[in-house]
Design a protein that fits this description.
The chain has 2 domains: 5-129, Alpha-Beta Plaits (2-Layer Sandwich); 135-213, no CATH class. It is built from 9 helices and 5 strands, in the order H-E-H-E-H-E-H-E-E-H-H-H-H-H. By secondary structure, the chain is of the alpha+beta class. Helix 6 packs antiparallel against helix 7 and helix 6 runs parallel beside helix 8 (192-198). The protein is globular. It has a 5-stranded antiparallel sheet with strand order 2-3-1-4-5.
Length: 225
C-alpha cells in the first residue's frame, strides 16, 4: 500500500529526529532475512548502543539532510537498512561484524564516521579497533599503574632508610642532626607514618641511642652488604 504524502512526511520527520544526534552509521543490505533473524539483529544493535531501520531510499535521503550521516544516505539503490549511533562507532561495527559472520543474508555497503564515508574494508578495520570502554580501561590502568609503583617505591624507600639509619646509629656513624634531616625528608615525601617507620626501633632520642648501642654487637655495614 502506497504511503500518503502526510505519512511520508511523518516518517521522514521521525527518522530525521533520530539521525540528528547520530555521528556514525553503517548501511547494509539483505536478502531472505527471516523475521526471527531481523529481531536478533535489532537486539544486537541495541546492545551496542545503536538503532536500526530498514529504509526507503528517498525518505532516507531526505531524513538525513543536515546530519552527520547525510553523505552515507544519499543516492542509495536497492534494499537498504541503516544502523546508527551517537555513541561508540567501534562498538557498533564490532557488533554488526560479529553478527554478519554467522548470517550471510546481511552484507555491508558502506559506513560513515563523523562525516567521513568509509568502505566495507574500513568497516572491518574499525571493528578490530579497541572500543571506548576498552580504551578507557587501558587509560585508567596507565594512570593508576605509575602511582601504584610510586607508592611501592616510597614505602620501600622508607623501610630501607630506616634500616640504614638503624645500622648507622649502631656503628656510631650518624649524629642527631644527620638523623633528623633524613627523617624529615622521608616525612615530607611519605607522611607522618613514614616518619615513625624511619625512626630506629627504640631510638626516640638519637644521641641516647648512639650511646646505648655502642656496647652491643655491630650490625651489617650498609655499604658492604
Amino acid at each position: 500500500m502506497a504511503l500518503t504524502k502526510a505519512k511520508k512526511s511523518e516518517k521522514v520527520q521521525a527518522l530525521a529526529t533520530e539521525l540528528e544526534s547520530s555521528t556514525s552509521a553503517i548501511i547494509g543490505t539483505f536478502k531472505g532475512l527471516t523475521a526471527s533473524k531481523d529481531f536478533e539483529l535489532r537486539k544486537v544493535i541495541r546492545a551496542a548502543g545503536g538503532s536500526y531501520h530498514v529504509v526507503k531510499n528517498k525518505l532516507a535521503a531526505r531524513s538525513s539532510q543536515g546530519t552527520k550521516v547525510e553523505k552515507a544516505l544519499q543516492g542509495l539503490k536497492g534494499v537498504n537498512s541503516v544502523a546508527y549511533t551517537s555513541g561508540d562507532p567501534v562498538a557498533l561495527a564490532k557488533a554488526l561484524s560479529t553478527w554478519v559472520k554467522d548470517n550471510a543474508e546481511y552484507t555491508f555497503k558502506l559506513g560513515i564516521v563523523d562525516g567521513k564515508v568509509i568502505t566495507v574494508e574500513e568497516i572491518d578495520s574499525l571493528a578490530k579497533l579497541p572500543g571506548k570502554e576498552e580504551l578507557f580501561s587501558k587509560l585508567m590502568f596507565l594512570i593508576q599503574s605509575p602511582a601504584q609503583r610510586l607508592a611501592t617505591v616510597i614505602n620501600a624507600a622508607g623501610r630501607d632508610l630506616a634500616v640504614v639509619i638503624n645500622q648507622g646509629v649502631e656503628k656510631g656513624k650518624f649524629g642527631a642532626a644527620a638523623i633528623q634531616s633524613a627523617v624529615s625528608e622521608v616525612a615530607a615525601a611519605h607522611g607522618e607514618q613514614s616518619t615513625a617507620n624511619a625512626q630506629p626501633s627504640g631510638a626516640a632520642d638519637p644521641e641516647n641511642t648512639t650511646a646505648s648501642k655502642a656496647d652491643e654487637a655491630p650490625g651489617l655495614d650498609p655499604v658492604a652488604g
